[in-house]
Amino acid sequence: xxxxxxDHTHAHDHGQAPxxxxxxxxxxxxxxxxxxxxxxAGGLIVYTTRELHxxxxxxxxxxxxxxxxxxxxxxxxxxxxxxxxxxxxxxxxGDYRVSRPSGRAGEAITITxxxxxxxxxxx
Length: 123
Description:
Largest sheet: 5 strands, antiparallel
CATH class: Mainly Beta
Shape: globular
Strand content: over 45%
Order of helices and strands: EEEEEEEEEEEE
CATH topology: Immunoglobulin-like
CATH architecture: Sandwich
Number of domains: 1
Helix content: under 10%
């Protein structure tokens, strides 16, 4: 199993559509976290702008779009910078769509063994 260090929290999988969550105080994450990925799993980090802070982003397998996993965009301080990310790990290998909070268009990605796929939605 490979260890990759990124500043993040883990996604959660409900096997259903995302739900509205009550507003909670936003926490700022600092430091590095180990991603648990390897031969049968990979990870995904989506870099966003501040405007998506606290909003959920979904990922779902192309072959089973009803099986959605989602996580919210978190503020992180890393190496003296503030960034906003949604981190998904571990994800089984395969082809996925990643949906933005509005529009739900579904950007295509592929999760590969022991790798962290990165999407940059800041620009």
